Amino acid sequence: MKSSGSTSEQSRIYNERIILQLVRQKPGLSRGYIAQQTGLSAQTISVITGSLLERGLVKVDGKVRGRRGQPSVQLSLNHQGAYGLGINVDRDRISAVLLDFSGHCVLSLEKQVSFPTEQTAKEIALALIADVKARLQEDWVKVQGVGLAKPDYMDAWLDSLVTDAVQRTDLEGLQAELTYWQSDAFESWLSEQTGLPCYKENDAIAAATSELLFGAKTPRKHFFYLFVSIACGGSIVADGECYSGAHGKAGSFGLLPTATGKHGRWILEALSISSLKRFFAGHDLPWPTVAAQWQHPKCQQLVDQWCQEVAFEIQPALSAVIALYDPEAIVIGGRLPSSVLPQLIDAVQTCLAQQSVLPVPDIGPAYADETAVTLGAAVLPLYETFAPQRELLLLASSQTLKP
Amino acid sequence: MKSSGSTSEQSRIYNERIILQLVRQKPGLSRGYIAQQTGLSAQTISVITGSLLERGLVKVDGKVRGRRGQPSVQLSLNHQGAYGLGINVDRDRISAVLLDFSGHCVLSLEKQVSFPTEQTAKEIALALIADVKARLQEDWVKVQGVGLAKPDYMDAWLDSLVTDAVQRTDLEGLQAELTYWQSDAFESWLSEQTGLPCYKENDAIAAATSELLFGAKTPRKHFFYLFVSIACGGSIVADGECYSGAHGKAGSFGLLPTATGKHGRWILEALSISSLKRFFAGHDLPWPTVAAQWQHPKCQQLVDQWCQEVAFEIQPALSAVIALYDPEAIVIGGRLPSSVLPQLIDAVQTCLAQQSVLPVPDIGPAYADETAVTLGAAVLPLYETFAPQRELLLLASSQTLKP
DNA sequence: TTTTTACTAAATCTAATTGATTTAATACTA
DNA sequence: TAGTATTAAATCAATTAGATTTAGTAAAAA
Known about the structure:
The structure is a homodimer. The first copy, chain A, is an alpha/beta fold. The first copy, chain A, has helices spanning 8-25, 31-38, 42-54, 118-136, 171-178, 185-194, 203-214, 267-270, 273-282, 297-325, 341-355, 372-386, 390-394, and strands at residues 58-64, 72-77, 83-89, 93-100, 105-112, 143-150, 198-202, 223-228, 232-238, 241-243, 329-334, 362-365. In chain A, strands 5-4-3-6-7 form a five-stranded mixed β-sheet, with helices on both faces. Chains A, B: InterPro entries: ATPase_NBD, ROK, WH-like_DNA-bd_sf, WH_DNA-bd_sf. Chains A, B: This is Putative NBD/HSP70 family sugar kinase.
């Protein structure tokens, strides 16, 4: 174990990132305002923004006239200053995106699967890499890395986690094949193919990271991200950073028990798209394939019923989160259809207000829609390279020690 | 909201603290070894240790001969280099200590009460301050501050939290009196009386902080501190720091529901000294007043039964902690009699091993005995002044902004 | 005596601060 | 309306703090 000291170079990098963060949150800032906000001197800001401009990470928008004195120069993020590549491997699909520095999606690929194979994932990845190289040309060097987001336990609960594709019967064989995703072979392969660093997180942490980088003008520092996909999970944001625990498995909300067990013993079986699909099937209603179908009264009513039942199922677990983490807010995101999410939030709010002994924090939707995870994957390299993280200052040097 | 930049002065303070931490954990280190461990240059270490020696925070132990080359100088913490004053207000007693820089208790006071009044607390505090000033003389200036540790909800559960003193009948009047402890009036008063900064935390966080500063040669970075006193609580240590949540209430383990409700609805009623006392009373066994009495077979057997029942009660809550927080270890400490603690740990280990779906982390006792809280209170000012905290670098400057 | 190790002094480098200066706009005034 | 004052933004130049590099010295074992 090493407790690293801090040098001026690390401070500089940190200060650069603090400035980038400010400019990202409020485009069009003047150097003077940045100086105020950071507590650094105007001269320092002048030097650092000069460097950021030179490196193309920041651009000049224009000048603000109308006030006394010299007009201030408005600085903004240069959208084309950096890119992040992201791949999300989920139980029912593999998707990939290229994200620019401002979080805008430049390229996007997706393929439906019933539990992903190594081969399908590699095909998607190769297609993405080829597309990106063709699109960016010499700007390829601005790609900061590849992010990979996948569920923590791809090879578990195969029978209860429904996917759309043809029913597989050879569950044991499938499970064996899926253990591929327990290794880090795919990360290594990605890194090799691209020549770029590869960052891996579980889907919940990836989604929460995108919330941190792009979520709000004044992001919350303490929240719990409740992530709903084919299964579900969670991520704890503490002091403005995702906390991943001693073994990278923190926030495993899905592994808490449900209140009644009606929708499955574990929350990941109850609060999930699988659960909702089973619920539709159990009530003989076809799964909507077009957005408008969600508005149908029968559909609305069924969704409402499901939301209320599930809210009740997860209430004790959410109460535990509130008692243990004392969050400012609970943010719900993931891959639920955008028309279902508000109903779920309503139901959870109502249920918690009735049952909780502790004050209930804000409960609201994540900023990103169903694309949150894939986007989150692409955010990982950008976050790693440009967000002001604690590690930067505390554990930056990584020299090995004498024996 | 302010995102502060980082300057070289902050780096220096941080590096000083990193060095102090190393020297605290492994007394007798050479400058060269410190340089290796921190990744800083030998010269930097020379300068900083020079300053620490001059300020009396570090002392020279001797020289190591026997190896080739010039013998290395052994540096250690100067025990008399700094002091911390601590007061613990609990439901059944008020206690206070003066701690030296190495964590050794210099002075200690205690008074039994049945729920503490403002007046009793002030008496104890004044006595402590007088004693300390008499003892330290001109070294009074080395006292870094006053720490106050108290339960989060002093005025709740009055009926179920047993104390030793005479039964109070006027519960409503008592409760009104106890709301004093919800304010920060006592902190302000302490600060005024001593002219020193006052640091307040709840008892669980204070105990965990002492574990962080004095707990181990190579302290764990991720653990859950389960704190058992008249009631119980918890504290989450993440990345080597106590996490206190958005409103300072994180880790409220006691507010999670029990499995069966047999020992009370909330964990703080079941896993607590109160619960154990009620259990003894319910089985017509007198509460041991001498340490040896705990060894009596009848007593042992009763304690064992209680431990097993309580372990079962808290098992779901501990599983939630493991799933949500993914800790390296669960550390149990607080004010349980030292003979009861190992039995409780055994019971919890056994119960979790049987019930948990996730791998069970290490479960072990805290380093500090029943004095953990009071000690923890006294640690707060030392921790604040000398531990390398994240805040130091990230939020050090606190200038106010223009409107 | 040679080699090795521990440590330090002086010079250098990086980055932030301070104070003066330049630039460009609005506000005031004759 | 022209000219001057005022204000604000930004930069230049000099200074300061702190870490690193380089070149030593001191002390002990081989």
